[in-house]
Amino acid sequence: MHSIENLGEMELDALKELGNIGVGKAATSLSQMLGKLVEMSVPKAMVVKIQNLHKVIDAEEMVAGVVTGLDDIENGQSGFLYITFPEPSSQRLAEILLGNGSDEEMVDSTLMEIGNILSSAFCDATAEMLGITLIPTPPSFGRDFAIAVIDAIISQLAEKSDYVIFFETKLEVSEEELEILVMLIPNEKFVNYVFQMLEMVE
Amino acid sequence: MGNEILVGVGEFRVAKGAVLKTVGLGSCIGIALYDPVIKVGSLAHVMLPQSSNGTKRSAKYADHAVEMMIEAMERLGGDRNRVIAKMAGGAQIFKHMTMDMLRIGDRNAEAIKSILRDYGIRIVSEDIGGSEGRTVYFFTSDGRMLVKYSRGGELWI
């Protein structure tokens, strides 16, 4: 039986694959929307205990964060997807996509839209890999310390789950490479889905 | 800032003399307890107001955290009748929010106040609410607490 805290290399590879399918689909949608080639990949996936979050992310880094809920039509809420754009990445991305001189409101909506696209793409990826239909909720948005933005969500799940799945994500557009971080915050149902997937891999 | 000890999300630490620090408080709350006579202090980064029956003891719940902090302070010679409290956090970070369940900052603060009241622990100062994340330093040498805001600015409480 698997335990989420000590996944082997093969299991982490399977998670990375889930991430890559998700961001790959998102990149296609973004390219179409923007009329520019956008490439995205997940070079690394990892599972992190909530108490150790501050060791993995710079807790005091300012980020723009987009959160969507992942709803399972059969069983209700299954988890959340949290996408953080570190401050330099979010500004640069807005400049590339919107040109200079766009106001903050406009930048915020653009980042939320990217969050929307990413979470829909992740839902497609889980449908493909796990055969589970998930529907994303509309995005919530905030700018603050990386942990402060999501602690409300982690708190919601803290009673049942102590882990977060990290997808380090690279986004390339107009020959520039930007770092974003995609975090899957699963509740226990989603963790079970992931185990089902890992068992299929083996 | 001297000897600094980091308190992770959902954890607590006790110290005599060192600076206890917790980063990235959003809707979570940093609770500091202090025995001014023997100068022992404790800081917790709590996520949830109340544990449900039968849950494993963990400092992520405010009720458990307060209990565990008092016990740990007493092991270092503290006395619960002298303990005072300071708290900071409970912000509402999301600018655009579609999920109402995420408004937990206020609920956290209220719950913690009532727990401390039950223990007879007086809250001497607090910095709760707003829309900014906080990092908190608790100086166990003298009981001062420094709150730093994510968009700059700081406050001693």
Characterise the protein shown here.
- The complex is a heterodimer of chains A (202) and B (157).
- Chain A is an alpha+beta fold and 202 residues long.
- Chain A has 6 helices and 7 strands.
- Chain A has helices at 9-34, 53-56, 87-98, 104-130, 146-157, 188-201; strands spanning 38-49, 62-72, 76-86, 134-136, 140-145, 163-173, 176-186.
- The radius of gyration of chain A is 16 Å and the shape is globular.
- By secondary structure, chain B is of the alpha+beta class.
- Chain B has a single domain (4-156), classed as 60s Ribosomal Protein L30, Chain: A (2-Layer Sandwich), CATH 3.30.1330.
- In chain B, 18% of the residues lie in helices and 36% in strands.
- In chain B, strands 1-3-8-9-10 form a 5-stranded mixed beta sheet, with no helix packed on it.
- The model of chain B has no long low-confidence stretch (mean pLDDT 91).
- The chains are: A alpha+beta (202), B alpha+beta (157).
| Helical segment count of chain B | 2
CATH superfamily of chain A: CheC-like
* Shape verdict of chain A: globular
Number of domains of chain B: 1
Fill in the keyword field for this structure.
heterodimer, A: 202 residues, alpha+beta, Chemotaxis protein chec, seven-stranded antiparallel beta sheet, 6 helices, B: 157 residues, 60s Ribosomal Protein L30, Chain: A, five-stranded mixed beta sheet, globular
Helices and strands in order, then pairings?
The complex is a heterodimer of chains A (202) and B (157).
Chain A: H1 9-34, E1 38-49, H2 53-56, E2 62-72, E3 76-86, H3 87-98, H4 104-130, E4 134-136, E5 140-145, H5 146-157, E6 163-173, E7 176-186, H6 188-201
Antiparallel strand pairs in A: 1-6, 2-3, 2-4, 2-5, 3-7, 6-7
Helix pairs in contact in A: 1-4, 1-6
Chain B: E1 4-6, E2 12-15, E3 19-25, E4 29-35, E5 40-46, H1 62-75, E6 84-89, H2 105-119, E7 122-128, E8 134-139, E9 144-149, E10 154-156
Parallel strand pairs in B: 1-3, 6-7
Antiparallel strand pairs in B: 2-5, 3-8, 4-5, 4-6, 8-9, 9-10
